[in-house]
What we know:
seven-stranded mixed beta sheet; 32% strand; binds biotin
Amino acid sequence: xxxxxxxxxxxxxxxxxxxxxxxxxxxxxxxxxxxxxxxxxxxxxxxxxxxxxxxxxxxxxxxxxxxxxxxxxxxxxxxxxxxxxxxxxxxxxxxxxxxxxxxxxxxxxxxxxxxxxxxxxxxxxxxxxxxxxxxxxxxxxxxxxxxxxxxxxxxxxxxxxxxxxxxxxxxxxxxxxxxxxxxxxxxxxxxxxxxxxxxxxxxxxxxxxxxxxxxxxxxxxxxxxxxxxxxxxxxxxxxxx
Length: 241
Ligand code: BTN
């Protein structure tokens, strides 16, 4: 694992894509001028207070239709690191990291595929570490420093999260995907709790998350007791803030 540090880049995901970087390399920047989030959103982060970095992974053993497993590796690795600092985090399907009802970290994975398998994955991660004041445009942010009274050493947090992700990645390489999925499910945000969801046609309902399968399909129980599977973008959480 090599760590490459930059003062400012457009997006660490773009920098990490350069050919000079290879498996397990990390590109970390103090500032990003065009940080990207999921669904075309921007990712804003206070300079020097948080972690914005991308990890290069080359999971050529992983079939493209199992790419959800990689997402589990990353989400579990981040929550393992938080646990090490005494922070109990949950994974909001698919890969937001929550503490209580607030988001502490986000993940943006960009995959290249060769034949049937993944060839290269750029795993972009933003973790709110020492920032304690957030702009009003963010719906529900939190940070490590807002949860514990400490100020954190960004390098230490980076090393710990990278180690935790690589440890989970080894589990995947060794074929322990059953363990990964079980732990992912056990850490799911709102698992077994009634909450409000919306479907793409605007219909809203009170549902209960029951499980997730190896392809990432979320099983949600409807008020009539029927359990329906949803893929990414087929269902939205309606959170009360
Ligand atoms: C999200 O929750 O919307 C995903 C956020 C991912 C942000 C990180 S910050 C480092 C990396 N570079 C980017 O441009 N985005 C990811």
